[in-house]
Structure prediction request, 279 residues.
Amino acid sequence: MKKLLALVLGLVVAFSTMMFTACGSTIFDGDYSEATKEDLTTFAAEVDAVEGGNDLDYSLGFKMSFKTERDMYGSKEKTQIDAKTAFVENDLQMEATMLIDNTYVIDENTTENFKIEGSSYYKGGFAYANVAMTENGETESVKQKIEVPMDNFIGEYTGEMETNLSELIEGLAMYEEMQVQGLKLYMDKGEENTKIKVVIPEQTLTVDGMETSMEMEIVLVYNSSKKLIAVRNFMKTSATYVNPVTNESSEMIVNFDITVEPYDGAIEFPADLDTYTAM
Prediction:
């Protein structure tokens, strides 16, 4: 269990510094009007001409929310991570909370539960984790820290995750091949920001013999300098599989909601960080 707990720190750090989006924030609201693929292509060329236009700038603070739920054949998985980052005198700071709560159906008489709950922080070149893990009723808690230089924290733990608007537009062809109905493209060209929205309303498709229901919304927000400053990615899918031998049906449901947007507030740290054990 201790080895698994040690891995939690990397998991929290990786998720909490990746480029994700936030649901329900006013930065994604706007005065949208329907756009054509040509409208998006023209704007994408302007973004591509700006160095780093498709990359979130890690020198800016941001807040992130990541939520996913999956219900598959009676087993349930839930993950939620919320994080904030800021730069204070060129020092990256971060606070994050995480919950992973999974219940697995082994057979009609047996279920297993796995739960991780905790907080993670980053400041002064160190990443900290305060985590409790429960497995089938047994709980173990740790407070650990590990030295991670800032460049490595952003690079090795997160890698580069780009949202290329041109590639997003090219990907629309895939939905056309899948005969997705009702796909809409929208733009809001304001004085401060330009917002791109792709919406796929709920619909039913047949994929690999399974009846699949899906809906999706993606929003990209660019400032007046054609730099990406916020993203929203929401998707909900469900699939029903019918066993051809027993004729029994099983359903899988997945909800996926990721958000990231600018944040210029402070980061709060616990008073006992100096007591965390070095890994």
Remarks:
- Helices lie at 2-16, 37-48, 150-155, 165-177.
- The chain has a mean pLDDT of 79.
- Residues 2-264 form one domain.
